[in-house]
Amino acid sequence: VDCSGAPTPGDAYCIFRQWLDQSCTFCAGGGAGPDATSVIAPSLALRVVREGDEIVVVLRANGAGTMDALGLELEYPQGLALIGVESPGKDVYAALQTRTVAPGRLRIGAYADAGHAPSVNGDLVAVRFRANAAVMHGTVKAGKFVDGLAGAPDLAISLDGSAVMPAATQVVLHQNSPNPFNPRTSIRFELPDAMR
Fold first, then answer.
1. Opening angle at CA 139, ends 48 and 173, nearest 5
2. Distance (Å, rounded) from C-alpha 68 to C-alpha 49?
3. Calpha distance 133→156 (Å, rounded)
4. Mind listing the pLDDT tens digit for each residue in 30-41?
5. How far apart are CA 100 and CA 170, in angstroms?
6. Is the pTM of this model over 0.85?
């Protein structure tokens, strides 16, 4: 909870936890979760993957432990059409919400179920866009990090020269999209090397 007067996903998480088991108090009681002064911001990185006419921007964290809530803003070229935001695995977040705050600017917020917080080592969110060849260039920027990402520096990555295949270090199976579906759905996966 950032306690600055500006609401964040951590505030929603704290309200949920207080209702569930009275395990969270707001600023007067020390804030939600660990003392903010003792938390070190995770190291963040962006990667871009091209899949046909789609571009996937993935936010990855390299740190230790887990985070209960996160929030950020993502700026992207206005020629890209937002398809959706995906979590790194099934049922990782109790809530994952997005809001377009301006053309080419998206706000993303999430919080986890108690005891199921995502690891700070790995992919946190993937943002999927549809593009045509004319707009598969430009820069994507991430910033205004709050809650578990607070203190991380702003990031930027060029869409030019983005990986054609996912740069995975393990086998990853993503949630199908759309879900529910009728009559078609796509199931995305990542492999570290060519394999059956």
1. 15
2. 27
3. 21
4. 444 443 444 567
5. 32
6. no
